[in-house]
Design brief:
With 234 residues, the chain is of the alpha+beta class. The protein contains five helices and eight strands, in the order H-H-H-E-E-E-E-E-E-E-E-H-H. It has helices spanning 13-19, 23-33, 39-51, 151-158, 162-230; strands spanning 55-62, 67-74, 79-86, 92-97, 102-109, 111-117, 122-129, 136-144. The strands form two sheets. The chain has a four-stranded antiparallel beta sheet with strand order 1-8-3-6, with no helix packed on it. Strands 2-7-4-5 form a four-stranded antiparallel beta sheet. Helix 3 (39-51) packs parallel to helix 5.
Length: 234
């Protein structure tokens, strides 16, 4: 008997294998369907991903004699722009505080704006206080990093193309991102040092408690033994 395929339906296995395209032809055809995105689009996505959380625009409602603060994590040597504007020209008091000192403050004003370069990394707080006896709404706008810079003027002065401006945005975003990472790493090291020192103190306290219990227990045994002997109990 021969080795022919006698199945109920369908072609023979050898015919099915012959019907498939060669592997080399498939390998040559596969890369043609995969197209890389344009470099400018990739850079724009990177710039948006790194700088999307660096801008705040909110409407704040303050009650009578109320005060609210909003914080932003900012890297060192980063441009920060904060703008306050009260609705209906109401008088308010505003201040911008860094991790240690007050950077900007102004009282009894309807609008205020400040721009400065941070001297240290950490949270910066924008505070608004309503000194009046009636509620007030305030528009707060905070821009930090690449969002705070006007790259259109930079492009006009330096005669830069759109791709070059995008590269500058990405470079500055990466620099700010690296600065934030280094700040977080320093905080992590300080927290680890604090945890290690606390654990060492706790272990020392536990050892001291055990030794104290042993000493007190031995002294009690010696005292009761002497007491029972003096009473001629033992």
């Amino acid at each position: 008997f021969g080795s022919r395929y006698l199945g109920p339906s369908g072609p023979a296995p050898n015919a099915a294998l012959r019907a498939q395209p060669p592997l080399r032809a498939m390998a040559r055809c596969a890369p043609s369907r995969l197209r890389r995105p344009p470099p400018l689009l990739v850079l724009a996505v990177w710039a948006a991903a790194l700088g999307m959380a660096k801008s705040i625009k909110v409407l704040i409602s303050l009650g009578a004699k109320d005060k609210k603060c909003y914080g932003e994590q900012v890297a060192k040597a980063e441009l920060l722009v904060a703008e306050f504007e009260a609705v209906h020209e109401r008088k308010i008091s505003v201040s911008v505080m860094g991790p240690r000192v007050t950077v900007f403050s102004e009282h009894d004003t309807a609008r205020a704006k400040t721009a400065f370069t941070t001297s240290e990394a950490g949270p910066h707080w924008m505070c608004i206080q309503n000194d009046a006896g009636e509620p007030v709404d305030v528009h707060l706008s905070v821009l930090a990093g690449p969002d705070a810079k006007d790259y259109s003027q930079l492009a006009q002065k330096g005669h830069l193309e759109e791709s070059q401006v995008t590269l500058k945005k990405v470079a500055e975003s990466l620099r700010n991102y690296h600065s934030n990472l280094m700040f977080i790493r320093r905080r992590e090291e300080r927290m680890r040092q604090t945890t290690d020192s606390t654990a060492t103190r706790v272990i020392g306290l536990c050892i001291f408690d055990v030794l104290l219990m042993i000493i007190v227990g031995g002294w009690q045994m010696f005292y009761f033994k002497q007491f029972f002997r003096s009473k001629k109990i033992i």
